[in-house]
Amino acid sequence: MNLLIVEDEVRLRNALANNIPWDKHGIEVVGQAGNGVEALRFIDRKKPEIILLDLQMPEMDGLTLAKQLRQSDPLLKIIVLSGHDDFAYAQEALSIGVMKYLLKPAGDEEILETVLEAAEKLRSELEQRHNEDELKQRWEQHLPYLVNDFLQGWLKGKFELWEIEQRSKYLQMNMLKGAQFAVAVVDMDPLPDTETRFSRKDMSLLQFSLGSIVQEYLQSTPCWVVSDYAGYTVVVYKLSGDEAPKEALQRINVLTEKLLFTVLSCLRLTASAGISGTIGGCEDLNKLYVQAVRALQNRIMLGHDLAIPYQEVQGREPEFVLQPNLEKALEIALETGEENKAADMLSALWEGGMAKAETIEEIHEHILYFESLFVRMIQKQGWSVREVAGEDYVYFHNHRELMVKEQILIWLQRMIKAYLTYARERRKSTSHDMIKTILSLVENEIDQEMTLHAVADRLYVNSSYLSRLFKQETGKAFSTYVMERKMERAKATLQEGVRVYDAAAAVGYRDVSYFTRVFRKYWGVTPGEIRS
Predict the structure, then answer these.
(1) Burial of 443 (0-12, 13-18, 19+ CB in 10 A)
(2) Intervals of the chain under pLDDT 50
(3) Using an 8 Å Cβ cutoff, are 342 and 373 in contact?
(4) What is the C-alpha to C-alpha distance for residues 441 and 328, in angstroms, rounded to an integer?
(5) Using CA of residue 29, residue 35, residue 38, residue 41, what is the dihedral sign?
(6) What letter would DSSP give residue 399?
(7) Cα(36)–Cα(58) distance, integer angstroms
(8) What pLDDT is stored for residue 134 in this prediction?
(9) Which of 350, 425, 418 is nearest to 389 (CA)?
(10) Which pTM does this prediction carry?
(11) b vs e for 238-265, b when ≥16 Cβ sit within 10 Å of the residue's Cβ?
(12) Residue 50: beta bridge partners?
């Protein structure tokens, strides 16, 4: 839980923030404010859940602030800490929703216990809000994503017929028994050399725009639109039972051509589409999807801005099996550092292709496939293939040195380890640079008040991440490290004969009495004793 302390007396404010062991009880002090106006700025930025509030303050008093906060956030827990024991003050505070009214001087234990009580009460209220209406609203919000995930799995042939029927009913997809489908796969064409508005870095944005255009254009057409693992926009057309298969496919070809024209008109860039060569039922959707993807691949030979129908290849079917879902899963596992999962995805890709290769030509074809897969994933990160691969780089330009399947598999497994090792070293280097920056800030600005949240804001990261990173790299909490550096600097300054007041100012303490207490607690002696 996050706590904001609002108190105009500097000494008391510092004592409340530093003398009570908040962190041991899961409470984080996200800020301190000296008046109501300053508190509003903190609340807008830090979003505290609990506020410890004084009543008598300049610019905006505590009751005015409490009224305003309760109107904007009824869940906010406000604890008043006041020197006024007038019953009217307490009655008014409680009437506007203040949780508790404590009288100064309240003890640290009583204050901590009250804040923990507020935290527990807030947790209880949040749990009660998870009622049926909210769950229904969340279900409706997440339904499009659940449908998208289901369609992705269905297209990849992951489900049995009974699962398709059960899941589609659960997701309210209104699928009639015995329904027939056709599939089209739409993708942006490569950017022309003359294109100046977009670059390759913008392809994800263009793919998203393509999906939005397809959704809007086909909103009155019975179909589902889904993005697949490879980034394509897939249209699953739902066909009426009274339409002949050839007539249905002809209509879909015309509709898809008009769709591509709409994309060109909107983006001033071309897209192409592959269309399944047949129609089929629920159990045929994977076959129709593969047909559409293979049709789309023919744009390499036929050119761009085309709606390409699938044509059955006579003779032996090609052994190379399309597995974009496994490719994407491998990429995600590598990016998230999951070595075992990456190894499993590599094995699945291997079993689906290379393991079935029977001739030298087929083996070389699959080597090229794996080479291009790793090159794409490495270069997507902005890395050098040579640096990542190290000694194994030789196989990227001379793959004929890989003589047998076992050798090829071992090489690919080494590439997974090389990728993950290189990624870890890059992240470690980045972490070290950030920690160096923080240590430099502490040394150069030790005469200023320094909090974890303020440093996180300056580095444009969130404070939770920064806290964990700092503890991981230094072995100390940020506040502990800052306190140590301040106390060591103060001691060194005092030993040089500097006055106690100046030594306190040199390490960011404006209240000499408070500095003296902190110094004595840390070193066991007073600043004056060190100086003498």
Answers:
(1) exposed
(2) 314-318
(3) no
(4) 41
(5) positive
(6) G
(7) 8
(8) 61
(9) 418
(10) 0.40
(11) bbeeeeeeeebbeebbebbeebbebbee
(12) 3, 77
